[in-house]
Amino acid sequence: MKKLLLSLTVVCGILNSYSQDYFPKNDGVNTTDSNYTVFKNATIHTTPDSEIKNGTLVIQKGKIVEVGNSVTIPANSVIIDLKGKHIYASFIDPYTNFGIEKPKPKGGSPFEGNPQYEASREGYYWNDHIRPETNALTHFKYDAKKATEYIQQGFGVLHTHSPDGIVRGTGLLIALNNEGTEGERLLSDRSAQFLSFSKSNKSKQLYPTSLMGAIALLRQMYYDANWYATGNANNKDLSLEALHRNKNLPQIFEAGSRINGLRADKIGDQFNTQYIIVGGGDEYAKIDKVKATNAKYIIPLDFPDAYDVSDPFAANLVSLGDMRHWNQAPTNPSVLSKNGISFALTTHKLKKTEDLTSRIEKAIQHGLDKKTAIAALTTIPAQILGKSDLLGSLKKGSYANFLITKDELFSKDNILYENWVQGHKNVINDRTAPDINGTYNLTVADTTYEMSVSGKTSDPKVEIKLGETKLGTKISRTEDWVHLTFTDADTTKTQYTRIVSRVNDTATLWSGKAILPNGSETSFSIQKKPEDASAKKPEEKPEEKPEILPVTYPNIAYGNAQLPKSETILFKNATVWTNETDGILTETDVLIKDGKISAVGKNLSATNATIIDATGKHITAGIIDEHSHIAAAAINEAGHNSSAEVTIEDVISPDDINIYRNLAGGVTSIQILHGSANPIGGRSAIIKLKWGQDADNLIFPNSPKFIKFALGENVKQSNWQSFSRFPQSRMGVEQLYMDYFSRAKEYEKLKNSGKSYRKDTEMETLVEILNGERYISCHSYVQSEINMLMKVAEKFNFKINTFTHILEGYKVADKMAAHGVGGSTFSDWWAYKYEVNDAIPYNAAIMHNQGVVTAINSDDAEMARRLNQEAAKSVKYGGVSEEDALKFVTLNPAKLLHIDNRVGSIKAGKDADVVLWTDHPLSIYAKAEKTIIEGAVYFDLEKDKAMRKSIAAEKNKLSALLLKAKNNGLKTQPAKKKEKQHFECETLETIN
After folding, report:
1. Are 376 and 333 in contact (CB under 8 A)?
2. Tens digits of per-residue pLDDT, 844-878?
3. Does this model's pTM top 0.90?
4. Contact, 692 vs 560, CB < 8 A?
5. Which distant-in-sequence residues (6+ apart) come within 8 Å of 859 by Cβ?
6. Residue 49 in 3-state DSSP?
7. Other CB atoms closer than 10 Å to residue 22's CB: what's the count?
8. What element of type H or E holds 374?
9. 149 SS3 class
10. Are strands 509-515 and 524-528 parallel, antiparallel or unpaired?
């Protein structure tokens, strides 16, 4: 009864403390409660790094009034003795959608029928997926049931938002005060601005359809916002006005993966905005790049469940990369911490909120310091949200949000007793309830059993034995009452004894009644055994440390333990295909030094060089693929008929295994082209295949500027069943080009006039084309359209650089030569769609013989692995010389890409991008023995053989660890093969 009166006193005081002075009161006398609640004799952890032993915490009206050792206790105080207990600040989750339902997507394919190209709203930004005006408060409804789930895990405050759109508007900071009013719970109604790469479910507006489109849209949005803020716009734009209002708030960007986090950070850097990045849990794989962002991170704890590999055939379905991620993901918080990266933890992506503690314990087991874990749940999220003065620590003036625990947080036997939020008590486990853990003699109907109780107060575990026989048991506890059920020792019978018992204050003697299997009641006794001080306690086994496999670059199969470095290499006695006037040289040496070809000749020598006997082998320049779609996270931006504002450089995927496979085929450089979804496509990326490097280091240094154009069936959407986008005919394609280049000329005229103008990334790109600063690679098939585009270019005084595919090039080769355009074609693909019916395998030879710079390309991840063989077909079809045929995949694509001053031939001073072949390079028997880029060996045939064995051994080891995890009772997921989409010109991807 005393406890009940004390609790009522505390609660009444708290409820009265929240009355507002200026609110009228008509249901009684308007009084103000000035009582205090005092917690004394506790270990108070004011911050994760500081504590007060035997400290005192004083709260009033939902705030901390005093904290320390020498605190004067006010006279009108309710005093709670917490001797032996600990007090911590309650947790803060900085990234949730608590109380806000995510809009459901509109059904159907976004491409079919009549796609929505224009915005559905007036007075807002031209793109529906930019919604900075969204205020989460208008969609918020406090969910007391869900709040209780968070409270039970130790949370006092949640940061919530509407998870919809590329720019999602502002969020709310909510105190989990189930007893309070909305006004009391709402700590901030404009706490931060939220962004992502995902579209809004509220609109079916098609653009953007790709990740690179989302990135381009964000850039254009920032340009437009700056322009609008100067007062130059003639229209009202509520979205841009909201964006301007929100610019000084914390900017939280949901990236969802390490590489998307790096992409987001580059946007922020361009516009002087430091995003707080919601990561993907894989930051550990390239931690140096993550650190270089200087961003604070919000890290999910959705570590993958173990794969069920009990079926050895199923085990083969799981990639080494996925197995590694299962093994390494729990180290992510520790790796971030050890590298000095500030981060908060979140329940985002957890299937159940209650999984939080076990995931944090797992992270601690994998190296995370406990104090760092506590900071990631308290002080760091408070800093991120700019609320350190009110949240995350226990100091005077802060909200009275705190936890009362049995022991230190995340210690083995800790129990969370209470979670106080804004001075309101939430009981998780009754701290006054007697501890029933221990060993007992249980006597029922003259039979004595041995009973052991362990676990938490609210969730006890029990074991009952009769002699050496362990009985089936079940136990539950409600305050001082325990319900116990156990089976009979005779396992042939299904019968139970049930006990309902009240536990005394010392938990030494239990009283109540027992119901026997026959239904009769009887007395029982449960007497706690005294601890034998002289008895030797069993030694606790040291906690088994998890075995963590090392990270490679990239962190998948065939990744490098160390990144390749430039070497000094001397090849002796090779057959060298120079692609220069020297032609093919036999018994010749090639010296590579400092990333360059240092010398070509006979009897060369060099100090400290690795000497390779190349007798009977061939050396060529590295193969260059003028038309590739590997190593990219997106290929087509199909949301508009022109996407000149997007660039493949934004979406390079350095972890694509096809990079390694291309290296195995002797490929050293590629142009990653935009697809053919629109007449004016996106900008290209020219990269070197430096396997293991990050995206920025793959990009060809100072590479020329290129863009993809397209003609034919794809751009007029013949095969999409889409009828609302212009153009729908080949005639319309021509008019689109005329219109866009005319507009670009007007744009440049305004830009050069000195008058105010809106920076338009799309127009900026087209102006570069007009000025000869950017080159066009054009997807083409039909001769009439090929002629048309050359004429359009000539009207605007520029030239088309390359016609790619160009399967009817043999019909117009003379005109191509006169225009000065090159041709990059397939060797012998034809008839795979209607406009390809006239293709012939002699195409490359005919163009070459007419003086057109001709190349053979892949447009296909698999074909790129044997471009040397594709080039050889021109020897058969057209009688091209072997030397010229090899140039089709080396020097000629280098010329088309304007990089032939650096690569494409074996010449002193050029980049050391070379291939050592086991045989004649045009032979089907030839293998790339070594593929070298800038003097570094990125593929080695013998190393590859060794890696295959190493991969098998590592998968075997990881399979054993996965089986061990399953046998230890951990959750598992089925072993499934993840199919990776292979991009080509026509691939249409969509983003959610």
Report:
1. yes
2. 999 999 999 999 999 999 999 999 999 999 999 99
3. yes
4. yes
5. 627, 628, 629, 804, 805, 826, 984, 985
6. coil
7. 4
8. helix 370-375
9. helix
10. antiparallel
